[in-house]
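Running this now, will post back.
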Amino acid sequence: MTEHSEVQARTVKDFCRAYGIGRTMTYELIGQGRLRAVKAGARTLIDEESARVWFATLTTEKVSAKTHEPTHADSPNGGERKPTGADR
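Update: finished.
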């Protein structure tokens, strides 16, 4: 028997890990017909060719390496912390 070195199908879990998306979006893509999936017993397998086609259709976004995270000085109250239940 000859082994295929190329992946033909992935489980939903493996697909999510490989492409960096969640299960909900994966099942939405299957429902929209953008990913081809088959059942093997209880497992849902996603056809790798359809995954590659879907991935190729994604647009690229410019991502900044530096993100702005709000500091206390950026907050509306000028950096003063409001007391919480733990502070009382």
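Strands lie at 9-11, 37-40, 43-47. More later if anyone needs it.
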